[in-house]
């Protein structure tokens, strides 16, 4: 099985390049492609936005149809699947998932496509493994880490920043969006190697892990 994985930012790619082999082993192949934000699904499958801006949902109709054409050339004994990972942020999960699945149904051709939604944000997957967080950041604040409820809507990256970043999320926020993105990539690089994919407590991470394993066993 070959997996094409799309994720909305560079920190997600950094993490997934490390995590995915832990899930699917060496018998399967994968590519992770990062974008520069999530955007929104264009109405009517129109994709007029600039591809160079690399906004994930803005480009999704074009991407799905493109992968549909590409995957058509794969042989039956080496199939491919498209995995799209999005942060839920403040969206309604059921409505967002329905919107995404409706989009796939309208695309022609459409490859086998699965959506994995991080609740609330990708940092929830790190916080699902507090042992990994502490291994990367031994001085992380236990009181803050232990107060986190897995996959809760609470300002997830801010929670992690409050635990591991000197000055917490308030200081990091003042440094601006680019600095926040850089710090998220540092968290990905430091925490992901320590993660035990079989012991993660994030339900959305477990869904992602189980989906990859199910597909790879087909």
Q: What can you see in these coordinates?
A:
It is a single chain. The chain is of the alpha/beta class. The chain folds into two domains: 2-121 and 200-216, Rossmann fold (3-Layer(aba) Sandwich); 123-194, no CATH class. 48% of the residues lie in helices and 12% in strands. It is built from ten helices and four strands; from the N terminus they run βαβαβαβααααααα. A four-stranded parallel sheet has the order 2-1-3-4, sandwiched between helices. Strand 3, helix 3 and strand 4 (113-118) form a beta-alpha-beta unit. Helix 1 packs parallel to helix 9 and helix 7 (156-164) crosses helix 8. The radius of gyration is 18 Å and the shape is globular. The protein starts with a strand and ends with a helix. The relative contact order is 0.16. The model has no long low-confidence stretch (mean pLDDT 92).
Characteristics:
single chain, 218 residues, alpha/beta, Rossmann fold, four-stranded parallel beta sheet, globular
Brief account:
By secondary structure, the protein is α/β, with parallel strands linked by helices. It is built from ten helices and four strands, in the order βαβαβαβααααααα. Strand 1, helix 1 and strand 2 form a beta-alpha-beta unit.
Annotated CATH architecture of the largest domain: 3-Layer(aba) Sandwich
Q: Which ranges are low-confidence, i.e. pLDDT below 50, for 5 or more consecutive residues?
A: none
Beta-strand level of the residues, as a percent range? 5-15%
Count of individual helical segments: 10
Q: Given this structure, which CATH class of the largest domain is correct?
A: Alpha Beta
In the CATH hierarchy, the third-tier topology of the largest domain is known as Rossmann fold
Query: Could you tell me the radius of gyration in angstroms?
Result: 18 Å
Structural class: alpha/beta
Q: How many distinct beta strands?
A: 4
Shape: globular
Instruction: Identify the strand order in the major beta sheet.
Output: 2-1-3-4
């Amino acid at each position: 099985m070959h997996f094409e994985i799309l994720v909305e930012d560079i920190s997600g790619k950094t993490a997934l390049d490390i995590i995915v082999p832990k899930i699917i082993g060496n018998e399967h192949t994968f590519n992770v492609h990062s974008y520069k934000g999530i955007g929104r699904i264009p109405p009517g499958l129109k994709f007029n936005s600039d591809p160079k801006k690399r906004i994930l949902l803005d480009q999704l109709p074009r991407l799905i149809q493109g992968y549909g054409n590409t995957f058509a050339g794969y042989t039956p004994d080496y199939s491919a699947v498209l995995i799209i990972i999005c942060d839920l942020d403040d969206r309604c999960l059921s409505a967002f998932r329905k919107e995404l699945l409706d989009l796939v149904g309208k695309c022609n051709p459409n490859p086998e496509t699965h959506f994995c939604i991080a609740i609330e944000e990708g940092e929830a997957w790190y916080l699902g493994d507090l042992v990994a967080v502490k291994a990367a950041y031994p001085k992380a604040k236990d009181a803050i880490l232990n107060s986190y409820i897995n996959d809760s809507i609470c300002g997830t990256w801010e929670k992690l920043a409050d635990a591991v970043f000197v000055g917490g999320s308030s200081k990091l926020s003042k440094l601006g969006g680019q600095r926040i993105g850089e710090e998220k990539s540092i968290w990905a690089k430091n925490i992901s190697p320590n993660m035990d994919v079989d012991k993660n407590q994030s339900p959305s991470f477990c869904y992602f892990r189980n989906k990859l394993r199910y597909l790879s066993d087909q």
